[in-house]
Specification:
single chain; 475 residues; four-stranded antiparallel β-sheet; 14 helices; 4-aminobutyrate aminotransferase
Length: 475
């Protein structure tokens, strides 16, 4: 452990424990304001109504003044806690004012300091083997522009240097071949890659995300369904992963020459925090290389330190890096990293939109990376994750209604299951009444997504709330 607490350094006034002052949750003021807001904005997914002016560090404050330990952190998007002083400092800087007041159309009018801003921030944080970047607007946009890069790369390879034909130029205006493409993106069962039009065709986590939206006929490969504890199920899990690799190989053969890329999460997040071994991902990478298929690793939720590595796929120790790595969330920015210059189309305006990212977000990402390095927050997250996992293991021992505790050695990226979704939802609802904001994923999983300033003292508070809540529900 370091000789100082990063949370105390940033947040000397951070609460030491939750405080729930209303008899029900959400409280009366929050309910009233949410109802008012619902007249102009859909609030049906709202957990609470936050007061971000009063929130500090790892604690979120709501409209009624309730103070909750936040282990969801805006769907894994708050890297350094609420109202981080270093982020507030850059937010009030001249550089931020200029970036916001003169938001550039980056592809046509890049700012004279954008290159240096990327070099000093997002590119310094690049995964091993990646030295180029495309900036985007969101995680979904990052994935969709990555798809476009892969399609154009594969088409250029087939053209072998020839120009577009007249037939291609004319047919594409009618959305027809040969100007369009028959190539596909292969994703995995229970994967989540966004809710935009193209990314939805690779999202496989919940029907509600996809219903009523036209979809591409793109292939779906199985993702391993591991048994826990891992140490007691080595042979069964090895057989499960081998079966998934074999089925993936069959899909590659069935779609021979048509799979432009595969996209996969290191840990499937929205689909239930599903894990696979390094060996599974290494074999997958070998197959993609053998068949000329590009590999996109979706690190939108797993990236930027949460798993005890800067990038979750670093746990795999791949002999060949992925072709593209998408990111967003904890960097407060979005885009994808890559290394092959051919993934940049050979003509302008093909990978293009008005903003192509946002220098104001790149400024924040730079500060986040600098603070992560300054305080070695990736190492600290690994240490805190081990501490929390061990405490949860002891708490859950003998409690048969909790299953599949997972995420050991994966930082604070920890999850566990209840027997049913209703049991899980009751647990999460009661947790908020007891002062902890935690969320679910998949059918019946609970996932932990704290900030990188979450420390042992916060873990102790969380475990205490878990214990209290389980006693209330199960005696």
């Amino acid at each position: 452990m370091p000789s100082y607490s990063v949370a105390e350094l940033y947040y000397p006034d951070e609460p030491t424990e939750p405080k729930i002052s209303t008899s029900s949750y959400p409280g009366p003021k929050a309910k009233q304001e949410l109802e008012k807001l619902s007249n102009v904005f859909d609030t049906r997914a709202a957990y609470l109504l936050a007061d971000y002016y009063k929130s500090r560090g790892n604690y979120i404050v709501d409209q009624d003044g309730n103070v909750l330990l936040d282990v969801y952190a805006q769907i894994s998007s708050i890297a350094l806690g609420y109202n981080n002083p270093e982020i507030l400092k850059v937010a009030k800087s001249d550089a931020m004012s200029v970036a916001l007041a003169n938001r550039p159309a980056l592809a046509c009018f890049p700012s004279n300091d954008y290159g240096q801003l990327l070099e000093d921030g997002l590119l310094k944080a690049a995964p091993q083997g990646q030295d180029k970047i495309w900036t985007a607007l969101s995680g979904s946009d990052a994935n969709e522009t990555a798809f476009k890069a892969c399609f154009m790369y594969q088409a250029a390879k087939k053209r072998n240097g020839r120009s577009f034909s007249t037939e291609e130029l004319e047919s594409v205006m009618d959305n027809q071949l040969p100007g369009t493409s028959e190539m596909v993106i292969c994703s995995f069962e229970k994967g989540f890659h966004g809710r935009l039009f193209g990314s939805l065709s690779t999202t496989r986590s919940k029907p509600i995300h996809k219903l009523d939206i036209p979809a591409f006929n793109w292939p779906k490969a199985p993702f391993p369904d591991l048994k826990y504890p891992l140490e007691e199920n080595k042979e069964a899990n090895k057989a499960e992963e081998s079966s998934c690799i074999e089925k993936f190989s069959q899909i590659v053969q069935e779609w021979q020459g048509k799979i432009a890329a595969v996209i996969i999460e290191p840990i499937q997040s929205e689909g239930g925090d599903n894990h696979a071994s390094s060996d599974f991902f290494q074999k997958l990478r070998e197959i993609t290389i053998e068949n000329g298929i590009l590999m996109i690793v979706d690190e939108v939720q797993t990236g930027v330190g949460a798993t005890g590595k800067m990038w979750a796929h670093e746990h795999w120790n791949l002999s060949n890096p992925p072709d593209l790595v998408t990111f967003s969330k904890k960097f407060q920015a979005a885009g994808f990293y890559y290394h092959d210059p051919k993934l940049q189309p050979d003509q302008p305006f093909r990978q293009f939109n008005t903003w192509c990212g946002d220098p104001s977000k790149a400024l924040i990402a730079k500060v986040i990376y600098e603070e992560i390095v300054k305080h070695d927050l990736v190492t600290r997250t690994a240490e805190v994750g081990n501490y929390l996992f061990n405490r949860l293991e002891k708490l859950f021992e003998g409690k048969n209604y909790i299953q599949n505790l997972r995420g050991k050695g994966q930082g604070t990226y920890i999850a566990f299951d209840f027997g049913t979704s209703s049991e899980r939802d009751s647990f999460l609802s009661r947790l908020r009444c007891n002062g902890a904001n935690v969320a679910g994923c998949g059918d019946s999983a609970v996932r932990l997504r704290p900030s990188l300033t979450f420390e042992e003292k916060h873990a102790d508070v969380l475990v205490s709330i878990f214990d209290k809540t389980l006693r209330q529900l199960y005696g």
